[in-house]
């Protein structure tokens, strides 16, 4: 939760600190600059996915999770103390870039390490339910950030928030990450990793080993494409869209996002548990169809809302559709790879897809708006979902895959008895 709070709080508070790091200009131009820096972090994620995915496969999931939260704490502290444009010119923006690079490195490894840890630590038949808590914690991080934003909006003036109040959430994030470092040091390693370490000491977490699973790696990129664009559209970009395009007050837009994300968070375990019963593909296919056909009318309608109720209902429809992807995408990726390259196999292809599509979603949306063709972004999201839908329709089901030799032997034993 803390890791993803630090990652997302940058976007949540961008509307307040954008003016602090760039010269005078129109509001959309300033948001474009901060969105570009937000995207920079995503382009660091493939490097983080490679380095920390390799580290997780060679040194263990626990070691990787401890390292990622250390990097995230340092980056949050950097943003908290970054100097403004008025004080040092563009040097402050450079500090933001460095901090986002560190965050990208951290998150590039965090996603894979947590996905593999949750998947490997859970018995077959419950993996969908357990791994769905990755997006529960990710969304909880966003909710904590939005909750803090709501508190600050109601206790500080807009001038104070734009002047210094936006630094508070980053100070909180840096301190909380230091606490999580201690907690993660006491995690137990997964049985699947311990088994692999004992039986196969060579070739773990290498690019050469990953190249033996090229099809699966390409599959991860393709199935992530539509999901990550839709996810960032209905989460991090939604608040800006409701405020900057629909014209809702920032406080109302933030409250809409908070309430919608809370319900979205509660849906994740339900959908993850459903996938354990009916398989992963039906949920992915439902998401693909819903996102392909529903994005344009939903976003168009959201652009015309004039109050809290309409914004909440339409946002929830979008997030219910996205749940078909978010609730199970971690477990599906982990189930595609063997233990010796599982973390790297999840991390690197997923990070590449996020850099190309997720990290740029907000920038692409604002670019379309700045050029007077905002609806073009809605068609872009639908097109990405359509490409991923083809993959969902043709990929194999992964629900019953054995993740370790022990699990495979137990499965064979049960089958023999039956």
From TrEMBL:
CDD domains: MFS_KgtP (cd17367)
Topology class, membrane: Multi-pass membrane protein
Superkingdom field: Bacteria
Matching InterPro entries: H+-coupled_symporters, MFS, MFS_dom, MFS_trans_sf, Sugar_transporter_CS
GO cellular component terms attached to this protein's record: plasma membrane
Transmembrane segments: 7-25, 31-52, 64-82, 88-112, 133-152, 164-183, 217-234, 254-271, 283-302, 308-332, 344-365, 377-395
Family: Belongs to the major facilitator superfamily. Metabolite:H+ Symporter (MHS) family (TC 2.A.1.6) family.
Protein name: Putative proline/betaine transporter
């Amino acid at each position: 939760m803390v890791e993803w709070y630090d990652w997302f709080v940058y976007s949540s508070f961008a509307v307040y600190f954008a003016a602090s790091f760039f010269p005078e200009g129109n509001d959309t131009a300033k948001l474009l600059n901060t969105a570009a820096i937000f995207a920079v972090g995503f382009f660091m994620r493939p490097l983080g996915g490679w380095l920390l995915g390799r580290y997780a496969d060679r040194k263990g999931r626990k070691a990787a999770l401890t390292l990622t939260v250390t990097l995230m704490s340092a980056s949050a502290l950097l943003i908290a103390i970054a100097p403004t444009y008025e004080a040092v010119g563009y040097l402050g923006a450079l500090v933001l870039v460095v901090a986002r690079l560190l965050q990208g490195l951290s998150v590039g490894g965090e996603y894979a390490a947590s996905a593999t840890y949750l998947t490997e630590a859970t018995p077959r038949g419950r993996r969908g339910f357990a791994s769905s808590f990755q997006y529960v914690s990710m969304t909880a991080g966003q909710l904590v950030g939005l909750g803090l934003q709501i508190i600050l909006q109601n206790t500080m003036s807009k001038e104070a928030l734009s002047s210094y109040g936006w630094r508070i959430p980053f100070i909180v994030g840096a301190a909380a990450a230091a606490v999580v470092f201690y907690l993660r040091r006491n995690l137990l390693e997964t049985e699947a990793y311990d088994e692999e370490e004992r039986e196969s000491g060579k070739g773990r977490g290498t690019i050469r080993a990953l190249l033996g699973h090229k099809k699966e790696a390409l599959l991860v990129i393709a199935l992530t494409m539509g999901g990550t664009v839709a996810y960032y559209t209905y989460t991090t970009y939604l608040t800006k869209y409701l405020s900057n395009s629909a014209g809702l007050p920032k406080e109302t837009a933030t409250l809409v996002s908070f309430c919608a994300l809370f319900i979205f968070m509660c849906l994740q375990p339900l959908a993850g548990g459903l996938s354990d019963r009916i398989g992963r593909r039906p949920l992915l296919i439902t998401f693909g169809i819903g996102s392909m056909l529903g994005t344009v009318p939903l976003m168009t309608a959201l652009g015309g809302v004039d109050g809290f109720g309409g914004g909440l209902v339409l946002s929830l429809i979008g997030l219910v559709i996205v749940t078909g992807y978010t609730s199970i995408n971690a477990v599906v990726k982990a189930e595609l790879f063997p233990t010796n390259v599982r973390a790297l196999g999840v991390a690197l292809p997923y990070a590449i897809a996020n850099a190309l599509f997720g990290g740029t979603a907000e920038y692409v949306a604002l670019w379309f708006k700045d050029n007077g063709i905002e609806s073009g972004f809605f068609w872009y999201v639908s097109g990405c979902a359509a490409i991923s839908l083809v993959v969902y329709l043709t990929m194999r089901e992964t629900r019953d895959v054995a993740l370790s030799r022990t699990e495979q032997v137990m499965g064979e034993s049960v089958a023999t008895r039956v």
